[in-house]
Amino acid sequence: MTVVDQCSLGCYIYGICYIHKKEVAVGCQIPNKIQFISIENKMMPTRKIDTSHLCYGITMKDDNLYVTDWGASLYVYDMNGTLIRTITNDIAGNKLFATSAHITISNDGDKMFVVNWNNGLVCLDGKCTHISTIKDNDLNAVDGVCTDGRGNIFVVGCYSHKVVQYNEDGKKIGVVVKQEDGLNSPRSIAFHPGDKRLFVTMDGSDVIKMFDLE
Fold first, then answer.
1. Among residues 58, 45, 51, 61, which one has the least CA distance to residue 7?
2. Number of domains in the chain
3. What is the domain extent for residue 55?
4. Would you say 128 and 76 are in contact if contact means Cβ atoms under 8 Å apart?
5. Does the N-terminal peptide bond of residue 31 adopt cis geometry, omega within 30 degrees of 0?
6. What are the distances in angstroms from CA 5 to CA 15, 43, 102, 109, 199?
7. pLDDT digits (tens, 9 = 90+) for 144-178
8. Which of 36, 87, 115, 191 could bond 101 through an S-S bridge, CB–CB 3.0 to 4.6 Å?
9. How far apart are CA 212 and CA 214, in angstroms?
10. CATH number of residue 141's parent domain
């Protein structure tokens, strides 16, 4: 857990996703852009995609980038920066998002889970068609979400100070981390498969909490 490098981008940074072993992409604001960063040897900014919207959550699937805007939309870009599609409504025309935040992809790639700050977790299929929305009293102000690659989804409730585990069908497994464990206003979450650990950031804090999962 030693810091080995640091890269300043001169913007507000929100989401980050792995592209391949030599590159990651991050979502930025002021200016709004998707910034690619080389992680080979020393971190270094490379190309970028300028956008007309804030880039908050970001993930990659089938060589496309899926980006939220902390608003009512989910955007799909190809790797050259061409906007392919904007998703805002379900098939009935109802709005899917009020405040779209972080995103994760299921283990088999057939589902996408998009956090909706005040309205739970939105589940989409591989074609971005709405499947269901998970709402839970243990999730107050939902922001971070990740998968463990084994069929489990972990979601954070910022105001409820909890991490809740679900399976990929939306069934609740239970609360795995709570305020009594030292969690306060969690915002983002990541899973390390090798060590079976959850890493959680907290609002207004420069501390990253690490939790071992049994």
1. 45
2. 1
3. 12-184
4. yes
5. yes
6. 18, 7, 25, 31, 18
7. 999 998 899 999 999 999 999 999 999 999 999 99
8. 115
9. 7
10. 2.120.10.30
